[in-house]
Fold each of these.
Amino acid sequence: MQNLLVTIVGRDRPGIIYQVSRILADRHCNVIEVSQTTLMDEFAGLFSCAMPRGTDPDELDRVLGEALAGSGLGHWVKAGTIDNAPAMLRDRLEPYVVTLRGPDRLGIIPEFSGIMAGFEVNINNLRAVSMTGGQDGNSPQVVLFFELSVPREVKQGAFRQALNMAAEEMGMEMSLQHRDIFEAIHRL
Amino acid sequence: MLTDREVVSTLEMLKNEHLDVRAITLGLSLMDCVSDDIGRLTAKILNKVTSYAENLVSTCDKIGEKYGIPVVNKRIAVSPMSALAGPFTSEQMVKVAQVLDRAGREVGVDFVGGFGALVEKGFSKGDLSLINAIPEALAETSRVCSSVNVASSRDGINMDAVKLMGEIIKKTAALTSDKEGLGCAKLVVFANIPPDMPFMAGAYLGLGEPDAVINVGVSGPGVVKKAVDRVMAQSPKPNFDQISETIKRTAYKVTRVGELMGREVAASLGLPFGVVDLSLAPTPQVGDSVGEIFQSMGLKAIGVPGSTALLALLNDAVKKGGAFASSHVGGLSGAFIPVSEDLGIGQAAEEGYLNIEKLEAMTAVCSVGLDMVSVPGDTSAATLSAIIADEMAIGMINHKTTAVRVIPVPGKKAGEQVHYGGLLGWARIMDVADYEEAGDFIALGGRIPAPIHSLKN
């Protein structure tokens, strides 16, 4: 079975999902998973599809290009393979959440994502939210939420210490917690 | 995907609202340590406690760190030691207490409960050996806690035991007079004692429980108070139904923490998970007070008219929310009103809003009883017994647990302050109606019979 990953990026508007999924369906590509998000009126979506044999990814790329021309949406088509490796890997991963809160400054995301990469920790989801706060109540503050997959082999203590040290240096509050606690408290 | 609100509100509960797992208690049966030789008994006890509890503290800390929620206290609750005390004298039972203390120290827990007895209908030889050992045992150990059940809804009130416990409390205070009678802070007299409570000083492992079990005590008066503050700030103001619903939902969240972490500690130790006790257990820290919840809801202080009604709402809402959050809820599960351990309650007593009579009325609707109540050092044993008898009657008739943890502070009078320090806090010594006629009353002895509604068969 061949897998296709279609990425769409551009100005958000009603009808994007319809437009893209219609083209894929007309080409008998079955959409298995979709992940989409919007930020400041911009749309980004990933469509994972199962492609019938003989489908030409380049042809699909051309068709999408024609259909989306003038719409302000960019697209990329990538061929890949569906296999079971991700499911197996998932068994060895633990979901954690890192929350950072503090004064906004340059370099927060590279600093912390660098530490995470160094420990082979994958970031599944990252959100950054701006607000005002701090001691005077008026300084620009940022809260970052990292949802992570942490391999079981990672030494928790060392990971926590590395994050703590970086947070201290940047004047931020850091917390690292297993995701289950949030679900246990807020979800039935 | 978690929402921002879910993450931020969880962190607020942890950082600013004092959410924590208040206690994880290993319940451990010592019935297999039975022996008629004191040396063999104490050796078996030491061996069992140290081997079962070896990893308790480190496991709790590891799981606390995983979830970012501290397990504040790690404790052990054992079988009622009176059950093993038959062959021994009181002096020998003091040695048993010392071994329990030593075992607790070796594994790093802060309290070991279970040096107690169940005497609601009468005394066995072992019961008397143990009870008479209590004052010295509590004076000579730091970790051992004692609870004596003198009444039940099924069996009535053992007034001989009530008389004896008044005397035991006086002796315990006298032997710890250098510490303001602190021994009495480790001694509780109960009606309808639950067999699985993780909180001290009443924790013990009931007969009928497994060989070893993990019970969890959560807490969160600060979390409940902040939730009440938020709903009270709404416009239009909420009514009692809505406030009750808010408390219920908050209790649910707090209990979920205990359920998740307790199960994981139990699984890591290879032990069965027992219960979550979802009591609102305060500490003397600011923002961690049950008394402050009363003020959030608009009362001047805990103890003024309206307090009993409010406490009934609070206690019930906590039980309902918590019951939904856990597969097994047990222990006391409700709201505690300990006078010295709660800043709001201590202040209310200090400022004259709360007296012992109002406290007694409130115990009819809260989950425990007269807790950490400091009284004048010269209060007679008979009056202490009469106070106990009143509290036992409330528990017996209403099919609830009630208890008395009262401290006659040697050398101090009503209106003076006493400082116990740490989690035990400070308090104003309360006025007590202490009349010598209590002596003749308590000396009548015998049993107050079980109420008619005990005939359920």
Amino acid sequence: MGLRVVDSSPATEADLIAACVRGERDAERELFRREYRHVHALLFRILGSPRDLEDLAQEVFIGVFQALPRFRGDAKLRTWIDRIAVHTALDHITARKRIPIPVETISDRPDPSGPADDRAHAREGLRRLYGVLATFKPEARIAFALYAIDGRSIADVAAITGVTALTAKLRIWRARREVERRLEHDPILASYIAQHRGPR
Amino acid sequence: MKRDLDRTVDRIVVEVPVADSSQHRVEPRLFEQLDGLRAAQRARRVAPDRGARLPGWAWGVAGAMALAIALLIVHRTGEHATSAAPSLVVTPAGGSSRFTIDDAVIEAGSDTSVEVATDAAGGITLSLARGSIDCDVAPRHGRPFHVIAGDVTVEVVGTRFTVVRRPEVQVDVAHGKVRVRANGRDAFVAAGERWPAVATAAVAPVPAPDESPAAPTVPAQRPEPPVTDQPRNSPTPASSRDAFVAAQRLEAHAWPQAARAYRTIARGGDRWAALALYSLAELDAAHDHAADALAVLDEYQRRFPKGASAEDAAWLRVEVLRTLGRTGDARAAAAAYLERFPSGTYVTPASRLAPP
């Protein structure tokens, strides 16, 4: 007797959305479990590692479930969730924009003495990167983070942030120019970015 | 040098920690909160507390909750709902409230009262009784979005703008363009502009053109900065680089001055002149002066064909031509870009425009 493969794949996206709109808890849990890692990663890449990242992720999903009945299906569900996550991140940045970013005192010269120092400098480089991003206008910060850190295309950035491709491109370009300017004066940040350069 | 640095910061890999434990922590909290919200909403629908006297600080919260409840009712009645009863958002003095409607994000400022109404066609109308609202509106694709402030109506295409009514009405546009109707007359207000224009303002509202509001409009000339805005006794920058940095700083709050500064720097022949010329094109493009931007890009291509921003300039040309509605020229420019920069940053969108 041959092995019969039973299709146990989850419901289609449309079915899942319909069940969530009806308030079916199993469907809501499935949607949450499907998308949580993605939302968590997106928020992390936009915001760095804020203490309240989990609260923000929770806020995103509250927004998702509250607004799901209005989902028209004219974008992918994930893109639609991305928009809610980006708006949540934008709210967070706007609310905290006057709070200074603490920067640890650390030598400006990367110490090649061992892995522990490498890790310390990597952490410091990351902190400095998000310290620089924190000085940008929220819209520029979001656009740059989506493009440069989350790896989105300019078209995706435009779609998620609701602006034209040209506007998205200009925001990214300006942010990139400012990061470049900071690199000239910050060897640790320059070293971090050189070591964490991603594929284009 | 500049190009190398640009490439260095093009993409950055940030390691994201594993989210499993985080997911297990968030899941029960999320559904507990969701249950609580739904129970509160059900209770309010059954017994709305219309006569309750709220302290001043609570009005903001109550207004936002009222909006959330109204929107939820619309959701529950499905896509074919005819219309929703208007909801009121009120913020106390010193407070603010942010809410979303469709893809629009609205921030009500201090001491603001705004009524939100939706209709069957997906249209949204905000009636501003007092205070200020900051609206970030994604392209509406035919669904109207209006802000009414007394006798003034602001019609939105897709933009970010602020309407203030204290009690005079003022409209500031950050991105995109809106149409302001007042006293039977229309005026288009573009990015960086204010309505009503003040006598000393550098930029006056653009008169309503014959074409539809969605069509690109190109002001004939970049506005000249008012002479009075020039700082007196300002020191002459020590170098092109200093001058460039100074021009950059002007961009956010005084872009016509920034444009003039870039033009001055661009008279030179060094890399800062090239960068200033490209920045000028960007600045014009960002402020809807597409024709000016194109002229500057032509100049850049002629004077600095191998400049550090040559690739960006080549792609900006494509974007600007599209903005001007010159689709055929944009395709040709995209093809030229692909030929010159076959592994460039914008290969994917260029290939969509000009398939090989």
